[in-house]
Design a protein that fits this description.
Length: 402
């Protein structure tokens, strides 16, 4: 029976890893549909190559930093327990690789390609696993969770990564966006702003749908073993998705981009407490997240002049922060939750995640800007990354001589 159990657990977490791997196609198509036509190929290639660089960085460095283990042993030992530890690595890798995928949307259309790959390696190899291990590794040498529990009565709770993945990714992206500066011609000297509407709404919608479907693997399968699966996580994810969608549609005044980013905002926010909340609490969390995204994205683009192309800072950074805090509110038994969570612990853990992300993002992107440069040459940026970097456009015109 034990061998059957380990086999089922390995299959369970493998299916979760595959679902989240598919989410990276969602990241690619969401970015493709949002950027201008001259940068669509770049979005597709960047997400794929970033994932591959993330795999190398996490395999050789990041996973060891987070969990104190590695894979430098014989295949016979690695294959023990139906290879559960291997597919667990695959599952957690898909989370780690979301960091550069998140950043990619914020710095789109003007960032150099190879320096961004270096940033990916450093972020996934060092910055992300530093905080990941503090939260998700119960044997981490820093003893962060034990300290939080002694201070607040409960550990910091982040079931599926509202803070560990999304807030960290969004707050890493913010200094990268600021260091890069706005796209050419986005904000004019006379104070006017050039509109850059989504180039392909159907692809944007496809990306959002892929992400939304995959998110149920992201959340539900964060249980990691079949005996810990909970239908509550699935239901809460569904309710937060619906709340985020309705808020994005309503406050975005029927705008397609806001409508399709709304469910993502809700799902980002519910990750942390999806295993604790009552479904009505998850609905409120999603509603707040959808409204928060629309409000802050509009402010950062129009008033603060922050050229965050896909709105990754409000979508992942701020909605992730809201999710970490919301777990400490709606997870309480007084509000229909399961309890076992403390608001003060959530504030401490969320604040630490934001701090590490900001410091890490500033160091990584600041050093790369000084040494290699972050931004494409003006001529290349004007021509577009597709032709400048990849030497092909998304819709090349047929040669009449063919």
């Amino acid at each position: 029976m034990d061998s059957i159990k380990t086999g089922v657990d390995a299959l369970f977490i493998l299916l979760g890893a595959i679902m989240i791997l598919a989410m990276h196609a969602g990241f690619a198509f969401l970015e493709l549909g949002t950027v201008r036509e001259k940068n669509q190929v770049n979005a597709l290639v960047k997400i794929l190559v970033d994932f591959s660089v993330s795999t190398i960085a996490y395999f050789f460095i990041g996973y060891s930093i987070a969990y104190g283990t590695n894979f430098f042993m014989g295949a016979e030992e690695l294959a023990a327990k139906s290879g559960f530890e291997l597919v667990k690595f695959f599952f957690l890798l898909t989370f780690a690789a979301a960091i550069p995928a998140i950043v990619s949307g914020g710095i789109a259309e003007r960032a150099k390609f190879n320096p961004q790959l270096l940033a990916t390696f450093l972020l996934v190899g060092f910055v992300y696993p530093f905080f990941e291990g503090m939260v998700w590794n119960p044997e981490h040498p820093f003893g962060f969770q034990a300290w939080v529990k002694s201070f607040s009565g409960e550990e910091f709770h982040d079931f599926a990564g509202s803070v560990v993945v999304h807030a960290v990714g969004g707050w890493i992206a913010l200094p990268a966006i600021l260091l890069l500066g706005a796209r050419q011609g986005r904000y004019r000297k006379d104070g006017r702003m050039a509109a850059h509407p989504p180039s392909n709404v159907p692809f944007l919608a496809l990306g959002a749908w892929i992400l939304t479907v995959g998110w149920f693997g992201f959340n539900v399968m964060s249980a990691q073993t079949i005996d810990k699966i909970s239908g509550l996580v699935a239901m809460n994810s569904l309710m937060a998705m619906a709340g985020g969608t309705l808020a994005g549609w309503f406050f975005g005044k029927n705008d397609a981009g806001f409508s399709y980013n709304g469910p993502l905002a809700g799902l980002v926010a519910v990750c942390a407490g999806s295993d604790l909340m009552h479904p009505l609490g998850a609905l409120v969390v999603g509603l707040v997240a959808g409204a928060l995204f629309v409000l802050v994205f509009t402010l950062e683009q129009n008033r603060w002049k922050i050229d965050d192309v896909l709105g990754v800072w409000p979508l992942h950074g701020l909605c992730g922060v809201w999710g970490g805090i919301a777990a400490g509110i709606f997870g309480q038994k007084a509000l229909g939750g399961l309890g076992g969570v403390s608001l003060s612990a959530q504030l401490i853990g969320t604040g630490l995640g934001v701090g590490i992300a900001l410091i890490g993002g500033c160091i990584v992107y600041g050093l790369i800007k000084i040494t290699l440069g972050l931004r494409m040459d003006p001529e290349d940026e004007h021509a577009g990354a597709d032709l400048s970097i990849h030497h092909v456009s998304a819709t090349p015109k047929s040669d009449s001589s063919w």
